[in-house]
Amino acid sequence: MGIRLLIADDHHIVRRGLVFFLRTQQDIVIVGEAKNGEEAVELTKELNPDIILMDLVMPVLNGIEATKQIKRFNDKVKILMLTSFSDHDHVIPAIEAGASGYQLKDIEPEELVNAIRKLHGGENTLHPKATNHLLTRISRKDQPEHRLEQLTNREKEVLCQIAKGKSNKDIASALFITEKTVKTHVSNVLAKLDVADRTQAALFAVKLGLDEKS
Question: Can you list the pairs that 182-185 forms with residues at least 24 positions away whose Cβ atoms lie under 8 Å?
Answer without folding.
Answer: 182/158, 185/154, 185/155, 185/158
